[in-house]
Amino acid sequence: MSARRVAIIGAGAGGSSAAYYLSQNAHNLGIKANITVFERSPYVGGRSTTVHVWDDPHLPIELGASIFVKVNKVIVSAVETFNLSIDSSADRLGPENAPELGIWNGYEFVLRTTAGNGWWDTAKLLWRYGLAPIKTNNLMKATTEKFFKMYDEPHFPFHSLTKVAYDLGLTAVTAATGEQYLQENGIGALFANEVIQASTRVNYAQNIPLIHGLETMVCMATDGAMAVAGGNWQIFDEMLRAAKADVRLNTTVSSLSRQKDGSYILGSKSPELSSIAEDTFDAVILTAPYQFSGIGISPLPKHIPNKIPYVQLHVTLFASPHKLSPLAFGLDAGTLVPRFVLTTLAPDEHYGNDPNGVGKPGFFSISIVGGGLNPSDSAKDRPEYIYKIFSPRRINSSFLSNILGVAAPADEEDELSMDEVSWVYRKVWNSYPYEYPRVTFEEIKLDEGLWYTSGIESFISTMETSALMGMNVARMVADEWAGEKENAAEKVAVVQEEEKEYARMNEMGQKPIKAKL
């Protein structure tokens, strides 16, 4: 069997995983796979990417996907396989003795927890919320246990996300909002609205009357959170290296044209080329959301992914020597603000499933994600905190001056002085879909030789699930190759038997029957 040519569009978690596992599967089958990965960004990792504070390569900060957890089988396995180091700096972030986490509703902190004081904080949770935290943990485990069956036979590889979700009883969870699912399972409204909703907001910028039940449970599976030192993008870079893939960065795929023999001509454009380059592939795996890909496919595939609404998330990173101002959060002067500030809605705010439900807080989270010495001549190695804000709108100088407790500029569009904020980086992501309740999901195989991984985004949107779908598609492609190889071997065996019969009859002087190729 000749070498198989595979194009993978996108070098994020899904594309990198697909390349890695397809390379392994092809090797096990004795098939050579030439894998080419097209990525329109100048880096590998997709939403898992880092930026460098003050342009210092020694201060990388995650801009997108920040953490994974110990139950993330694909990601954790890759970290171990590639011997990547886990970042252990999180415990040292922020002002000394500051509370670890706080949930703010725009008026007050409804909850504050302290690092290293687990049993006391558990007691406070039970006093305020009764048995709701324990019930939620048990419900989360029972729900995610169903999901983890997708990794193993007989469910893996799954040819239909809709069918495997139904078979595992997960469509009953995705059919309900988080609010409905929690109510059905006896989780008190106070805990749901304060703690669980704070988690869905920081993870998906969505309130529990909007987001579906499965994604709500995923938000509560935080045990063993970790990150790779230097950036999680290294996981996917290592996958592509191990796959020996031809990775073409800064390259935009513009067209796919299916040929009569089932192959695809792929048109791409890069800054180095003055015209569209064309390459031929036996299979194409699209890992970017179809609606944002801008790829013209001819003829149109049998299955076209639906256009769905995505969250437009503003991420703001900035460095400042100032702690967060307690007055901005309704605290007494001199009180330390928690290192991680999550938000929820106040009791008098009810947005239902309105996607514009950020409420009085005006943001989803503020967290201290690093620290360093300002290298500028004027600062003279001044220690500064590095903050990250998730919000539905652009963070302006008025907002920053308020949370830092410093004077605002006359024009809110002006930046704060370098003495107050020495570095700012802003990014707007189409970060993940609005996870509205649903029971059907996009097809994985769009047409013969054309595969799609981003349909899992409306089911669960994480680095892990994208990597799982990449692994799943890689297995499906390899299984097709295995079937073709088996059919080819059977044809060869038939021809060989006919040739033997031809020779035997020829020796006996009988009229031979010509072997059919």
TrEMBL record:
SUPFAM superfamilies: FAD/NAD(P)-binding domain. Residues 118-488 form the Prenylcysteine lyase domain. Keywords: FAD, Flavoprotein, Glycoprotein, Oxidoreductase, Signal. It comes from the Eukaryota. One of its GO terms (molecular function) is prenylcysteine oxidase activity. GO terms for biological process: prenylated protein catabolic process; prenylcysteine catabolic process. Its cofactor is FAD. Belongs to the prenylcysteine oxidase family. This is Prenylcysteine oxidase 1. The lineage of its organism: Eukaryota, Fungi, Dikarya, Ascomycota, Pezizomycotina.
